[in-house]
Specification:
Layout: H1 2-17, E1 27-30, E2 33-44, H2 50-54, E3 60-65, E4 72-77, H3 80-88, E5 93-104, E6 106-107, H4 119-122, H5 125-129, E7 134-144, E8 183-185, H6 199-208, E9 223-230, E10 237-239, H7 240-252, E11 257-260, E12 262-263, H8 269-276, E13 282-286, E14 307-313, E15 331-334, E16 338-341, E17 348-353, H9 354-371, H10 377-386, E18 389-390, E19 402-403, H11 406-411, E20 436-442, E21 447-449, E22 453-462, E23 468-470, E24 474-475, E25 479-482, E26 496-504, E27 514-516, H12 517-530, E28 542-548, E29 556-558
Parallel strand pairs: 7-9, 7-11, 8-9, 11-13, 13-14, 14-15
Antiparallel strand pairs: 1-2, 2-4, 2-5, 3-4, 5-10, 5-12, 6-17, 16-17, 18-19, 20-22, 20-28, 21-27, 22-26, 23-29, 24-25, 25-26
Helix pairs in contact: 6-9, 7-8
């Protein structure tokens, strides 16, 4: 019933979206989600030149690169389906995927309340402001429809790029963007992220409208540096590839936090890769408004440690009727009838959605980053989750089971747990020169489709008597393994190296459209690398230990 409901809702969304102009009028449907008909994303294997691959494809060109993820490109093509098929059959390609279309996650009410900031007392902000209301040293990037940075209640909190001179037509700081004084506009390749929709401006006001200035409202953070990356158009739609450009900009310009009040599309390995490449960036995102499980609503459904996903609550501390829910959602925050800044001079409006809930949490994250400048993204995320106000009606709807609490977060002492060392593998009966022990971590019970990549981590332990050197890579038609180069150039006996595997789903049963992903992926992976068929893996999340005494399939060599 859960999957049927999700598909029905997505189908309705797609039908409505088909009536909209601009980007949606030229969109194609893939697994009930929207994807661009002009661009795709591809990542090539290490050492493969883009030119050698692109030159063999007709009418295909590179339109964007992402330096955080080597080998990742956005390709422009007149025939995305044909190009995807060709690339997925090319052994030099790590993965190729559609450029999914995402959308803002606001939910417009019929009867707005124009004069209430009921949410601030609900998140216990007033008492928290006695401790800290200033996050002026913290940079937050709003990845959205842009921001109306001339609004009198926002102007003093808009980030100014210190390396750029406004209006001189020169890329003064040599970051690839001309006159990016307040951010960038990915849609027209300019340094002007002016909002033409309202959504990004409304979100920015909740994060950090200037407080105590006798004008309008106050955000959760009275002072902050809010930058803008416009990738959603005037209808609130955009592509994953452009969102990745915004994230790259956030990393390049030192934004510790980004607010992402949007979602949709399918799972993107490129998105996972760019988040993995920058674990110190805190990615705040919305749970979505489909009134269902958030299991397949991206980016909320990604399990990266630096993602914090937010559901919406109402003035009665109930889950908002539209809000998605489930273990993918970390916390809830007010998202119904939220009053904030709007387009043009001195305009304000009321809107609802998980889009409006997310910036409340983003504002608190900025306050925590200012209060504790030594905390990293994961520590801030975990602290927010563990200091919520417990709400029984929200138990089971999120990981925290409660609502954001600004005062608790700013007063409760955070104690870092003692790191738990990785488990030591049992020794082999007879030590051999070259041997490894794989410790594979996997999370099953997620469905995947033909050709879709599944990522999982594992640890290599050197349980032999010799040093092992090499890149520790293995390639196969179904699986690609990638490990960092070991420190010192070798893996010493008894030491470990954490690695990553990408498995490409192959469905042999013509009557089946999907498989129970990670369990089968791990089983196939173990069959390939260790000749041990382990198809009866536990259906619960867990860890499995596998000895590999024959490492001839691996790109390693004994140091002599």
């Amino acid at each position: 019933m859960e999957h049927k409901l999700t598909l029905s809702i997505l189908l309705v969304i797609c039908i409505i979206a088909a009536l909209l102009p601009t980007v949606l009028s030229s969109a194609t449907v893939i697994h009930n989600v929207q994807a661009s008909t002009t661009t795709i994303l591809v990542r090539l294997r290490p050492t493969v030149s883009a030119a050698t691959v692109i030159d063999q494809l007709s009418g295909v060109s590179v339109s964007a690169t992402y330096k955080s993820v080597p080998g990742l490109y956005r390709l422009t093509t007149a025939s995305p389906g044909t190009t995807l098929s060709a690339l997925r059959n090319d052994a030099r390609v790590l993965y190729a995927e559609p450029d999914y279309i995402v959308h803002s996650t606001d939910n417009w009410p019929n009867d707005p309340y124009m004069n209430q900031l009921w949410a601030m007392p609900k998140i216990n902000a007033p008492a928290g402001w006695d401790i800290r209301m200033d996050a002026s040293a913290v940079k937050v990037l709003s990845i959205d429809t842009g921001v109306y940075y001339l609004h009198p209640d926002l102007a003093d909190n808009i980030w100014i790029n210190p390396g750029e001179i406004s209006g001189n037509g020169i890329d003064d700081d040599d970051n690839g963007w001309v006159d990016d004084v307040h951010g960038i506009n990915v849609l027209d390749d300019s340094g002007n992220p002016m909002d033409d929709h309202f959504h990004g401006t409304h979100v920015a006001g909740t994060i950090g409208a200037v407080g105590n200035n006798s004008v309008g409202i106050a955000g959760v953070a009275w002072r902050a540096q809010i930058g803008a990356c416009k990738f959603l158009d005037s209808y609130g739609y955009g592509t994953i590839s452009n969102a990745l450009i915004c994230l790259q900009y956030a990393y390049d310009m030192g934004f510790m936090i980004s607010n992402n009040s949007w979602g949709g599309g399918g799972e993107s390995q490129a998105f996972i890769d760019i988040l993995n490449a920058n674990p110190y960036h805190l990615f705040m995102c919305a749970a979505g408004n489909e009134h269902t499980w958030a299991t397949h609503f991206y980016p909320c459904a990604y399990d990266n440690d630096n993602i914090l996903c937010v559901g919406a609550s109402d003035s009665q501390d109930k889950r908002a009727e539209f809000s998605n829910y489930g273990r993918e959602v970390d916390v809830f925050a007010p998202g119904v009838d939220i009053y904030s800044t709007d387009l043009y001079y001195m305009m304000y409006s009321t809107h609802s959605g998980t889009s409006m809930a997310t910036p409340h949490v983003t504002g608190l994250a900025a306050l925590l980053a200012a209060e504790h400048p030594d905390w990293n993204a994961v520590r801030i995320k975990n602290h927010i989750i563990t200091t919520v106000r417990d709400v029984p009606d929200l138990h089971g709807f999120s990981m925290a089971g409660g609502i954001l609490d600004v005062t608790n977060a700013l007063t409760v002492q955070d104690e870092l747990p003692t790191p738990t060392p990785p488990p030591t593998p049992p020794p082999t009966a007879t030590p051999v020169p070259n041997a490894m022990w794989l410790v594979v971590e996997y999370v099953p019970n997620v469905y995947y489709y033909q050709g879709q990549p599944i990522g999982f981590t594992y640890t290599i332990w050197n349980i032999g008597s010799q040093k092992l050197t090499g890149t520790f890579h293995i390639t196969d038609s179904k699986v690609y393994v990638e490990c960092p180069y070991p420190a010192g150039g070798y893996l010493a006996p008894g030491s470990a190296l954490q690695c990553y595997a990408i498995y490409y789903v192959t469905i042999d049963d013509v009557n089946s459209q999907r498989i129970m992903g990670t369990s089968i992926a791990v089983a196939d992976f173990l069959q390939i690398v260790s000749n041990q068929a382990m198809y009866e893996l536990s259906r619960a999340s867990g860890i499995i230990y596998v000895p590999i005494l024959d490492i001839s399939k691996w790109n390693t060599r004994e140091e002599r």
